[in-house]
Amino acid sequence: MLDAARTYSVGMSSAIPLNVGIARSAASGPADADTGKRVLLAEPRGYCAGVDRAVETVEKSLERHGAPIYVRKEIVHNRHVVETLRERGVIFVDETDEVPEGAVVVFSAHGVSPAVHESAAARNLHTIDATCPLVTKVHQEAKRFARDDFDILLIGHEGHEEVEGTAGEAPEHVQLVDGPDSVGKVTVRDESKVIWLSQTTLSVDETMETVKRLRERFPSLQDPPSDDICYATQNRQVAVKAMAPECDLVIVVGSRNSSNSVRLVEVALNAGAKAAHLVDFAREVDSAWLAGARTIGITSGASVPEILVRGVLDMLAEHGFADVKPVTTANETLVFALPRELRATRA
Q1: What local confidence, expressed as pLDDT, does residue 109 receive?
Q2: Closest to 163 in 3D by CA, of 93, 235, 231, 228
Q3: ω into residue 100 within 30 of 0, thus cis?
Q4: Residue 248: phi, psi to the nearest 5?
Q5: Distance from CA of residue 208 to its chain's centroid?
Q6: Helix, strand or coil, per DSSP, at residue 321
Q7: Which residues contact 262 (CB under 8 A, 6 or more apart)?
């Protein structure tokens, strides 16, 4: 299922070779002696295996079928990625009934419900499923526990595409729990048959707080067979926690509809950063944020190509932040195979 690890960015240059793999101790020590300014660069950051797979799925589909191809929802939650693919002939739609009968449609990394598959089949669409395998795992868990007649408490954000897809696997058994404050509204049929699952891109700390409150109400609450919050989401949050206490400012590169990117801002603030902001592009960085700052942390969400991080680093260098120190808390090598119908075309 897995290929050798690699780096990938949409139509752009590869990742920045900034001494990846240097231990976290590289972040310690004085700021640059000339300017008194430094950047702590989180590692890991940016593209995860699921996003890499999803974006390449769309590009390989374009190569095989030619433009236009259709994608239901945004393939991943990143403005740059979506705009770049749109320029190459991808048409993004909200629902399958917007796709011409018989056309090619790619399902996004966030997954879809069985009802969406049925709608596509009814229109004779050629479907290519780019759902992240880690999201598929949660779907399988939902189906399994629904078959065993459990009440499934799905921790996640209302309206998020991933939540809609997972809940759609077993709508009569799934109840959404949107954070700790929603726990009081939960009702179950049998307190001895309750399990929690979660959206893969949540804050680990907030999710555990939600689980704690659920368990106070339902002591027999069961845990999922394995972690639902994906390895990449957890790794990026750990890296931010490691550098945040030293930072006057943390800049998270990512889009506002990206759950994992938004969570990184929250994690940075909760871990001790004096300020944290989310930006899509370097041009969105307000120079006023830099006033008085000596240490700036940089990270990016799991759907962000590295070229956007380079833009922020270049901008900061122009303001005297040229000293870049990696903060490495994990090394990721996982790569998912493409959907079966596209695997023969992968290099």
Answers
A1: 98
A2: 228
A3: no
A4: -75, -25
A5: 18
A6: coil
A7: 254, 256, 278
* pLDDT for 301 beyond 90: yes
Calpha distance 92→109 (Å, rounded): 13
Q: Are 136 and 111 in contact (CB under 8 A)?
A: yes
Whether residue 308 has pLDDT greater than 80: yes
Which stretches within the chain are classed as H helix?
49-65, 79-87, 114-122, 133-147, 161-167, 204-217, 231-243, 259-270, 306-318
pTM recorded for the entire structure: 0.88
Q: List beta partners, residue 177.
A: 155
How many Cβ atoms sit within 10 Å of the Cβ of residue 164? 19
Q: Which three-class secondary structure state does DSSP give residue 2?
A: strand
Q: Residue 69's closest CA among 110, 128, 111, 124?
A: 128
Q: Is the peptide bond before 44 cis (omega within 30 degrees of 0)?
A: yes
- The CA distance from 27 to 97, in Å, is 51
Catalytic residue annotation: 162
- Token pair belonging to 276: 């944290």
Report the distance separating Cα 1 and Cα 342, nearest Å.
13
Structure tokens at 330: 């994990």
Digit-coded pLDDT (tens) for 250-286: 999 999 999 999 999 999 999 999 999 999 999 999 9
Helix (H) or strand (E) holding 151: strand 151-155
Assign 3-state DSSP to the chain and report helix, strand, coil percentages, each to 5: 40, 15, 45
Give me the helix-helix angle, 259-270 and 204-217, nearest 10°. 90
Q: Using CB atoms within 10 A of its CB, is residue 67 exposed (0-12), middle (13-18) or buried (19+)? A: exposed
Under 8 Å between Cβ of 129 and 107: yes
